[in-house]
Amino acid sequence: MASYGEPQGSWDSTEGHSPLRAVITIDTDLENNEEAHNSGASSSEGEADTTLVDEENDCEIVTVCQLRSGTVFRVPIKVQGQSLFAVVDTAAEVTLISEEVYRSLKSVPPILREVIMNTAGKGMQMNGYVVGPVNLELGSKLIQTNLYVAPIEDDMLLGFDLLRAHCIDLQMSDGQLRVGDEVIPMTMGNVMQAPRVANVTIRDKITVPPNSVMKLSCQG
């Protein structure tokens, strides 16, 4: 059983200092393996630090998040009253929602600040932002917090920051979250999500010329 206490520290900049820009390095390739499925353990291999950087001194101030997950546990949650399933990801130091989910919210929270996301090992940059306040419902518990928004595959990553701040117990062996006296069952694998990729095969090798479209007979 993993239990997390109250968070410490603040991310606010101090008066008189130059503005802070969030520079986030993440690995969005969420790899799942059979061993992680069976044990319920979360993989932290390939994690990359995310820091707030002072523009003038270029010095590291606070580590914000490390994003890489081997877990496939999902839990039902409501974001601004909208129901979805969040991946329970203890390797993610911050809680994220996808841009698709953010745009679909009926009550869209304002953008507080922008962040730059450097994808670890891929030489790519993505733009993201922090929004809030956002109303969350996890079981019967009501939470108001700020969330990161990023172009991620999953609808939501329930990160270490929120688990720790609200003393949520993650019980891997039982496949459940415990929020105070309330037990919330988790589900393993994809739940109610449309396929992102469709694999198809063709019998013969076909070369498609550039800047063109070709209709092929294929088998799913």
Automatic annotation (TrEMBL):
Protein name stated in the entry: Peptidase A2 domain-containing protein
Xref: InterPro entries: Peptidase_A2_cat, Peptidase_aspartic_dom_sf
Keyword Hydrolase (UniProt): yes
Biological process per Gene Ontology, one example term: proteolysis
Domain of life per record: Eukaryota
The species this protein was found in: Mytilus galloprovincialis (Mediterranean mussel)
Xref: Pfam families: gag-asp_proteas
Alphabetic keyword roster: Hydrolase
Positions of the Peptidase A2 domain: 84-162
GO molecular function annotations of the record: aspartic-type endopeptidase activity
